[in-house]
Amino acid sequence: MSASTTVGYRCPVCRERLAEAPGDFACTNGHRFDRAREGYVNLLPGGRLKGRSSGDDEPMVRARRAVFDAGLYDPIIDAVAETAATLVDDVGPPAVVDCGCGEGSYLARVCDHTGAEGWGIDISKPAVRAAARRYTLQHHAVASSYSLPFDDQCFDIAVSVFSPRPHSEMFRVLRPDGAAIVVRPGPDHLAELKAIIYTAPRRHGDVADQDDAEGWPKAVSTRAVTFEVDLAEPVLRTALLEMTPFWWSATDAQRAEVADQVLRVTADMRIAVFRSQA
Ligand SMILES: C[S@@+](CC[C@H](N)C(=O)[O-])C[C@H]1O[C@@H](n2cnc3c(N)ncnc32)[C@H](O)[C@@H]1O
Ligand SMILES: [Zn+2]
Known about the structure:
Layout: E1 19-20, E2 24-26, E3 32-34, E4 41-42, H1 58-69, H2 74-86, E5 95-99, H3 105-114, E6 117-122, H4 125-134, E7 139-142, E8 155-161, H5 167-172, E9 174-185, H6 191-197, H7 207-214, E10 221-230, H8 234-242, H9 246-249, H10 252-261, E11 264-275
Parallel strand pairs: 4-7, 5-6, 5-8, 6-7, 8-9
Antiparallel strand pairs: 1-2, 2-3, 9-11, 10-11
Helix pairs in contact: 1-8, 2-3, 8-10
């Protein structure tokens, strides 16, 4: 596995390669995309995709950052980085794309661990802004995982952590010997929060069932990462709830109950590795 061709953005309008200048990115057909002050570029045509969500909002991004900065998700962030390291050979620095990178911590840790060149995309502008502001060694763009702004077969590893994972698009940008790393919730993920928010909490299904449903090939490996999240600090209880979709279902009383009473929760996640089939 090696980065034999350099990665670059392709134009979301005409698909030509975008040439990078200090202030913008432009193709030979005259489509131009300004670089934001924080260093990222918005490659969503018209700024956003019709009918699709615009992703995590500013408070969700802040909450996620607070939880990560407190180290509460270090076991899974480290495990993703370790998984990436096992997929890398010593031919050259790998190129990694994180599809739905959020505020950027997973991609940055993968790059620290592997020496990879990192490219993070997310449909949320606040998330990409936060990622670009802090993690200046990686490239960040506002874009959709359903239409990745990259040429075919330019990455060694494609990552998706709790984000949409369109199989055909992720494998399009992977080299023939590339690998995808997908992180999903396990059956007991955040069970203590769910027990408060939902009267009949649903457990997440088995990973194998999800692969079938989404057209993914069989994983070459699946690792369970399960740990206790210590929520001694009340502000982190609210942050953990706010970074999940449970926040939107929770009543004010349930939000208060979480903030007052949930001292620890179970994190139960699955890291699956898939090989490119080309
Ligand atoms: C649960 S968050 C996970 C973020 C990050 N991977 C993490 O674990 O910290 C889901 C992310 O997917 C992003 N997202 C949603 N739809 C998307 C799409 N079509 N393309 C790219 N990102 C998307 C959201 O904006 C959000 O940042
Ligand atoms: Zn163009």
